[in-house]
């Protein structure tokens, strides 16, 4: 069974299962399809978490692929010269951007099931 917010994404996941893929293969296909068909539900510019239980070993793998701060980010970058927080600086504009983790996280999920 595959369920998502978009028929095309659901069909992509279902096609993967019909060709012999596993649940993670289908979830990754759905995730990438949603990035195109329903970006607010699954976008490659974001991040997330995934728990995968490996059928062969019973092991549970936790994958944290949240966005990360840019390399040059610092604790002081949202403060004025007096050390006070500048309102909205962390949520609006170029300093609010994070480095996306979705593509790396979904690839890591595929690798976890290839063990």
Describe the model.
There is one protein chain. By secondary structure, the protein is an alpha+beta fold. It has three helices and two strands; from the N terminus they run ααββα. The protein has helices at residues 7-18, 23-37, 102-113; strands at residues 49-53, 60-64. A two-stranded antiparallel sheet has the order 1-2. α1 runs antiparallel to α2 (23-37) and α2 (23-37) packs antiparallel against α3. The chain is elongated and about 60 Å long. It starts with 6 loop residues before the first helix and ends with a helix.
Element layout with pairings:
Layout: H1 7-18, H2 23-37, E1 49-53, E2 60-64, H3 102-113
Antiparallel strand pairs: 1-2
Helix pairs in contact: 1-2, 2-3
Briefly, what is this?
With 115 residues, this protein is an alpha+beta fold.
């Amino acid at each position: 069974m595959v369920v998502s917010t978009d028929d095309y994404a659901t069909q992509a996941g279902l096609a993967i299962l019909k060709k012999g893929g596993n649940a993670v293969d289908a979830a990754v296909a759905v995730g990438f399809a949603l990035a195109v068909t329903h970006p607010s539900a699954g976008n490659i510019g974001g991040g997330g978490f995934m728990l995968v239980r490996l059928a062969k070993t019973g092991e549970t793998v936790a994958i944290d692929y949240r966005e990360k701060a840019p390399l040059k980010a610092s604790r002081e970058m949202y403060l004025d010269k007096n050390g006070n927080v500048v309102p909205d600086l962390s949520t609006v504009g170029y300093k609010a951007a994070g480095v996306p983790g979705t593509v790396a996280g979904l690839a890591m999920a595929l690798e976890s099931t290839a063990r």
